[in-house]
UniProtKB/TrEMBL annotation, chains A, B:
The lineage of its organism: Bacteria, Bacillati, Actinomycetota, Actinomycetes, Glycomycetales. This is Glycerol operon regulatory protein. The keyword Lipoprotein does not apply. PROSITE patterns: HTH_ICLR, ICLR_ED. Gene3D superfamilies: 3.30.450.40, Winged helix-like DNA-binding domain superfamily/Winged helix DNA-binding domain. May be an activator protein for the gylABX operon. Keywords: DNA-binding, Glycerol metabolism, Transcription, Transcription regulation. It comes from Glycomyces albidus. The keyword GTP-binding does not apply.
Amino acid sequence: MAKHIQSLERAAAMLRLLAGGERRLGLSDIASALGLAKATAHGILRTLQHEGFVEQDPDSGRYQLGAELLRLGTTYLDVHELRARALVWTDDLARSGGEAVYLGVVHQQGVLIVHHVFRPDDSRQVLEVGAMQPMHSTALGKVLTAFDPVAHAELVDAKREPFTARTLTELPDIERVLERTRAQGYATDMDETWEGVASVAAPIFDRHRLTVGAVGITGAVERMCRDGELRPELVAAVRDTARSVSRDLGAKPF
Amino acid sequence: MAKHIQSLERAAAMLRLLAGGERRLGLSDIASALGLAKATAHGILRTLQHEGFVEQDPDSGRYQLGAELLRLGTTYLDVHELRARALVWTDDLARSGGEAVYLGVVHQQGVLIVHHVFRPDDSRQVLEVGAMQPMHSTALGKVLTAFDPVAHAELVDAKREPFTARTLTELPDIERVLERTRAQGYATDMDETWEGVASVAAPIFDRHRLTVGAVGITGAVERMCRDGELRPELVAAVRDTARSVSRDLGAKPF
DNA sequence: TGCCTTCGTTCGACAATGCTAAACGCTATC
DNA sequence: GATAGCGTTTAGCATTGTCGAACGAAGGCA
């Protein structure tokens, strides 16, 4: 007996395929990409369409993701306990730090942003909730990798893309950073993911002292750093926030 | 041969069930709610969990929606053509109107919010992207019902909940309003969904002159209305925005 | 503390179920 | 106006998911 339901696995693969390709995809593309007969792919797509997970463009006949996914994805956020507990604290962090705040959890081979507070100025910013960040180069990713064994295992398999000249891609280098992250209790990212952008992040624990996520702030290096080092007051603010959320989740402070 | 794949329909029903119930649900609850054997429900849930659509609380064993739904839901927004085209115009509408702007599409028996621009002041507001609004009482819902035959058909079947004393729930009353909506090209909502809140919305058409969505602004009646009527300049601004987006989508202006 | 219920999970056999391959109508293209 | 490609439908076979019953492990009640 198979471990997983075949049609469901295929349906999930289709959704991920549609999420990957920028444009809409045709039935033949989908079928060949997954190695399925056209009729098989069609049956799955028809059901997904009926359930609202997939939509079909009437003109071209091409398929794209459906609206029900947005509704369910938002509902996921509503039920998310870590996010609900963090909401209270992240606004304060954004205000005191003067920078954008991100709350992330481990998902597949990256960090999924579940909450995002804009930098408190009037500049136009795009909400990044639901977006993914890389594990090996961002402060959120590094802190999660350092404290979450599952994330650490994923890191080894993941392909570690170099985004800038300062991105660490070799495992030994990264392991050394993770060691230091564990020792100091927070992680940083200076020019390793985006040029001119720095970030700090600290881990959030639940009542079993398991790492369930991380908070961090991200901003221009010029504002975040002083003398080539991250401003200590920012690091302290981030760590305080992480501790507050952890306490709300039931984590005992040692 | 069945019209739809059984296991997929059941999986979708589970996700919707999990989205409905506020709290996490146990396996037995899910199985009995859908009339399935526990083993059957378990097999589906195991696959959904493996794909990231469902997560299981290690302590209680209960199930909740998974992070992959958030990721896919966000991707849906990224690919959404109407939303992409509307982004440019909605900011201007929010600024000129001084109120919150919503962009909605028909989904199931309601309006799914696919874009939301905050009212341009410094008050704290929660993003409502991914949320649903009722069809029969909001300006967005009424305008979509009036111009989209599919939405109109859904309205008849839907249960029309009375939210305030002014909510219309009887079909003949609603039909009369829809008639007027079609005639004047926009719809309004004054105290019909939330007490003290008014809204205006206008339809957006694609190149086939099919209604693909609607834009509207929502705010306190005191600001939105004058002498018991919606301020004409707000109505004009909303309709201009709808026309601009329609033109961007390829709709010919008659 | 010990019994008992109830939970999530596993097992094995059956037949209903979803898969495959081939043919269909259709639209665009040259 | 022929052709190549699309999405869709059909029929039959065997794979696949479903079911009922039994399992170990928690949690509640006395």
